[in-house]
Each structure stands twice: as structure tokens, then as C-alpha cells.
Amino acid sequence: MMRPSLDQWLLEAKADPAAPACGMYLFHTGVVRSTPKAKVRQGADTGRTVRAVAFSYDEDKLAAAVERAKKMPGIFYVRAWLNAGEVPVGGELMLVLVGGDIRPRVIDALQSLVGEIKTSCVTERELYE
Predict the structure, then answer these.
(1) How much is the pTM?
(2) For tag attachment on the chain, is the N or C end more exposed, with fewer CB atoms within 10 Å?
(3) Is the distance from CB of 84 to CB of 23 less than 8 angstroms?
(4) Taking the chain, what is the end-to-end CA distance rounded to the nearest angstrom?
(5) CA 127, CA 96: separation in Å to the nearest integer?
(6) Got the DSSP string for 64-97?
(7) E-state strands within 1-129
(8) Burial of 41 by CB count in 10 Å (0-12 exposed, 13-18 middle, 19+ buried)?
(9) What pLDDT score does 40 carry?
(10) What is the Rg, in whole angstroms, of the alpha carbon atoms belonging to the chain?
């Protein structure tokens, strides 16, 4: 799946009618890493290396999550793109852009949205070498 341009997204965000209210934009770029999730999160070393992630998502749940993020205090712009299929190490799984009035609100909204996407919208399975 073709990854969108972050530069283009930012240009579009700055052209949005809500742009004058935005004092900060933050991007999240989720990338496939070679280290298994179990090792990174729980310290469990199986000796295996990730070669790719089988990734899919629920479009309706993603749209609902984005709408919830847009309703957070001080948030005026939200956009998300998720990949699908077998994504190799180094490939992007997701891009998320949040724009809002002040840094704490934008950071909180980005963290909340990415967390919801990861826990409720996506299905991912590591594929090993």
C-alpha cells in the first residue's frame, strides 16, 4: 500500500479552516522493527527475529477513533492512515497527525489515539525469519 506524504499532509493541515487555531502538529509513524514485541515489552528473548508483520484494521473503528480524538479539548485537526498486508521490517504500519492549540493537549490526543488504534482497531501478527 502506498504511504502518503507527510509533507503533503502538513500542507493540507495548514490549509484547513481550523489551522489558525493550531499551535502545534505532531506526527506518529509506526514502523515494523526486527525485535519481537515480547522482547521489547516483557524482556522475553526467544532468539527469533521479526521479518515482517501481517497487519490489518477495521475501517469503521478507525474512523470512530479519529472522530473521538477530534472532540478532545483543544484538538482541531486529526488524520490517520493505516497500512494493510505483510509489512516488512522498516515499513510503515501507520501514520497519525494531530493538530491542536497547545503542546500538552496535542501530546495527550496523539497518545490516546495511537493507543486506541493499537488496542481496538488493528490486528497484527509478527512473522519471523
Answers:
(1) 0.95
(2) C
(3) no
(4) 22
(5) 24
(6) HHHHHHHTSTTEEEEEEEE--EEEETT-EEEEEE
(7) 24-31, 50-57, 75-82, 85-88, 92-100, 122-128
(8) exposed
(9) 86
(10) 16
Q: How far apart are CA 69 and CA 28, in angstroms?
A: 14
Q: Rounded distance, CA 70 to CA 52, Å?
A: 32
Please list the residues that pair with 53 across neighbouring strands.
Answer: 87, 126
The C-alpha atoms of residue 38 and residue 43 are separated, in whole angstroms, by 6
User: Looking at beta carbons, which pairs linking 11-20 to residues 24 or more positions away fall under 8 Å?
Assistant: 13/77, 13/79, 13/97, 13/99, 16/76, 16/77, 18/76, 18/77, 18/99, 19/76, 19/77, 19/99
Set of cell numbers at residue 98: 494531530
pLDDT single digits (tens) 54-103 = 999 999 999 999 999 999 999 999 999 999 999 999 999 999 999 999 99
Q: What is the pLDDT of residues 93-111, one digit of tens each?
A: 999 999 999 999 999 999 9
Q: Is the Cα dihedral 127, 54, 34, 38 positive or negative? A: negative
